[in-house]
TrEMBL record, chain A:
Protein name (Swiss-Prot/TrEMBL): Metalloregulator ArsR/SmtB family transcription factor
Species for this entry: Streptomyces taklimakanensis
Keyword Nucleotide-binding: no
Top-level taxon of the source organism: Bacteria
Keyword annotations: DNA-binding, Transcription, Transcription regulation
InterPro entries, A to Z: ArsR-like_HTH, HTH_ArsR_DNA-bd_dom, HTH_MetalResp_TranReg, WH-like_DNA-bd_sf, WH_DNA-bd_sf
Annotated GO MF terms: DNA binding; DNA-binding transcription factor activity
TrEMBL record, chain B:
Annotated CDD domains: VOC_like (cd07263)
Protein name (database record): VOC family protein
Gene3D superfamilies in alphabetical order: 2,3-Dihydroxybiphenyl 1,2-Dioxygenase, domain 1
Domain of life, source organism: Bacteria
Domain VOC: residue ranges: 2-128
Length: 100, 130
């Protein structure tokens, strides 16, 4: 499961998809493709975007839901918590000790 | 060569006539009975009486349903209409109960939005790039 997560995050296009879903959750495949091509000048096919979404979905970072005749993609960042649980980060309030 | 007529398949021509004229604001241009309850039904933009006609064509052919269902599932619009202000048109249509699958989205020189025409199609609204 962790391997799926790191594999999903390893690709810049997939990270861009996550960025766009952060801006607005609940997008159709068409909207995601439009954002990648118009905002990011990424000339990739719809099939390729579908494959990227499938990998993100396998990692649990993207969830799909059918609403009537439409299909929307939602962001779920909960799996990212497992990274901080594996390698705990210091609490933000804790001042970093400067090395002498 | 000019684009004189283009078409969308509609589930029900009466319903389509209502939606395309009363809700969207197009004007009916031709309405010719063709037998078997089918009509040659076209609409135009109110400020362009000689502009491109949109034919509201019955969606009875068996190939139409799987084709349109697959497009709607992925959110792909079948036609694009130009408006001066996508945001304003989005608010106006939403107040009339129109379902949008994509809210207004500014992408460089163009703003777009996508709605369901209630006749089986998704339609894209766009500003003309200047």
């Amino acid at each position: 499961m962790a391997d799926d997560l790191f594999k999903a995050l390893a690709d810049p296009t997939r990270r861009t998809i996550l960025d766009e879903l952060t801006e607005k959750s609940g997008q159709t495949l068409f909207e995601i493709c439009s954002r990648l091509s118009m905002k990011h000048r990424l000339g990739i096919s719809r099939q390729a975007v579908s494959q990227h979404l499938a990998l993100l979905e396998a990692a649990g970072l993207v969830e799909t839901r059918r609403e009537g005749r439409y299909k929307f993609h939602d962001l779920n960042t909960a799996p990212l918590r497992r990274i901080t649980e594996r390698w705990p980060t210091p609490a933000p309030s804790e001042p970093e000790k400067s090395t002498p | 060569m000019k684009i004189h007529l283009t078409s969308v398949f509609v589930d029900d021509q009466d319903k389509a006539e209502h939606f395309y004229t009363e809700i969207l604001g197009f004007v009916k241009k031709h309405d010719v009975p063709l037998g078997e309850e089918a009509r040659w039904l076209t609409v135009i933009a109110p400020d362009e009486p000689d502009g491109t006609e949109l034919l509201l064509e019955p969606a009875g052919h068996p190939a139409v349903k799987p084709y349109r269902d697959a497009l709607v599932k992925d959110g792909i619009p079948l036609a694009q209409f130009a408006v001066a202000d996508v945001e304003a048109e989005y608010e106006r249509l939403r107040a009339l109960g129109v379902r949008f699958t994509q809210e207004p989205l500014a992408m460089g020189p163009v703003t777009t939005a996508v709605f369901d025409d209630t006749c089986g199609n998704l339609i894209q609204l766009a500003t003309r790039p200047r």
